[in-house]
Write a structure and sequence with these properties.
The protein is of the alpha/beta class and about 350 residues long. It has 13 helices and 15 strands. It has a seven-stranded mixed sheet, sandwiched between helices. Strands 11-12-15-14 form a four-stranded antiparallel sheet, covered by helices on one side. Strand 14 and strand 15 form a beta hairpin. Helix 3 packs across helix 4. It is globular. The relative contact order is 0.18. The structure holds 4'-deoxy-4'-aminopyridoxal-5'-phosphate. 4'-deoxy-4'-aminopyridoxal-5'-phosphate (PMP) binds next to helix 3.
């Protein structure tokens, strides 16, 4: 049976978007392809409130974690870790031999500008990594406020932002906030199938990359930029996904960006109220995510059984991630899900569990 996905990626993809992928294939060095990329680029800039280039890679978001670290660090990186996905930054830094320190908080907590300030003051860092939305715990970090602090006190520190489960679901004012790289995967708030990574890159990040000879090949911003100026990519792009993205960006802009952010908050508020009433919220109230809510399983029900029952009714939620499995569960409210979808889902859970 078809299940509507309320998991934090891949998210529910509308029929129209699935259909947009089936447009006839074109050569990627053709004028038709350049016209497609030229149509998409300004819409991506609008989405991110930026004048900077926004690149599209045939990759998932993890590729940009590696690419942005390799092209960013000359001295030392400070990696903020608040869950399994932010920890990936650290693993990638180690795997690439990048000098790195980690700043940890307990699961369910996030970072404040003061915490980042104290940690950055301790060594000669030139990169800070942030995870906008820690999908494992349902924590949203105050990226705007942290970036303001960094831009004021640490002008040479590049701010690399994993916005994988936030971009297109929460406002990111790339230029005004002063961040240097922000990237996402297509299968989260963009509500597309997986396989495309989207990344905005600042002037500071381009300048840093110029000074790093061994910055890697596939994600190299400088070769990307050369091609981007001709509405091309150095390697073969994910053309079908870009067709779908083009259609989706039209729909996002037709909805209106402010309306889109507000819809995500409205859905989040519904899940939070329900979660507080029947269970408990896992994340610290100061850091609740607008795109996914992690609920503590205070009733000690079997989440696997609950999900099996939901499956019969055409929905799927997510078990807790890693060590949080069965102790928590996650309901995503991102992408093209609606307030009515969320109300329906919560009603089904109430019915199954007799809440
Ligand atoms: N960062 C975050 C915050 C994520 O949620 C995920 C995926 N769940 C990733 C990184 C990895 O993204 P991908 O699997 O698309 O590479």
């Amino acid at each position: 049976m078809y299940k509507k996905l309320f998991i934090p990626g891949p998210t529910h993809v509308r029929e129209e978007i699935l259909g947009a992928q089936t447009a006839p294939m074109i050569g990627h060095r053709s004028k038709d392809y350049s016209a497609l990329q030229a149509a998409v680029s300004p819409k991506l800039k609008q989405l991110l409130y930026t004048e900077q280039p926004v690149f599209m890679y045939a990759s998932s978001g993890t590729g940009l974690m590696e690419g942005s670290l390799r092209q960013g660090v000359q001295k030392r990186a400070l990696v903020t870790v608040c869950g399994a996905f932010s920890e990936r930054w650290y693993e990638i830094a180690v795997a690439n031999g990048v000098p790195t320190d980690r700043l940890d908080v307990d699961l369910g907590k996030g970072f404040t500008p003061e915490m980042v300030d104290e940690a950055l003051s301790k060594a000669d860092y030139d990169v800070l990594t942030l995870t906008f939305n820690e999908t494992a715990t349902g924590v949203m970090n105050p990226v705007k406020e942290i970036a303001a602090l960094v831009r004021q006190k640490y002008p040479d520190v590049l701010i690399l932002v994993d916005a994988v489960s936030a971009m297109a679901g929460a406002k990111i004012e790339f230029d005004a906030w002063g961040i240097d790289v922000a990237f996402a995967s297509s299968q989260k708030c963009f509500a597309l199938p997986p396989g495309l990574a989207i990344a905005a890159v600042s002037e500071r990040a381009f300048k840093r990359a110029e000074q790093i000879p061994n910055r890697g090949y596939y994600f190299d911003y400088l070769t990307m930029l050369k091609s981007y100026k001709k509405d091309q990519t150095p390697a073969t792009p994910a053309i079908s996904l870009i067709y779908a993205l083009n259609r989706q960006l039209d729909d996002i802009l037709a909805e209106g960006l402010e309306n889109r952010w507000a819809r995500h908050i409205e859905m989040a508020n519904l899940v939070r109220e329900w979660g507080r009433k029947h269970w408990a919220l896992f994340a610290d109230e100061r850091f609740l995510s607008n795109t996914v809510t992690t609920v503590t399983n205070t009733r000690e029900v079997s989440i696997a059984d609950l999900n099996a029952e939901l499956g019969k009714r055409g929905a799927q939620i997510s078990n807790g991630y890693g060590t949080l499995k069965e102790k928590t569960f996650r309901i995503a409210h991102m992408g093209d899900l609606t307030v009515a979808d969320i109300k329906w889902l919560l009603g089904e859970i109430d019915d199954i569990l007799g809440l």
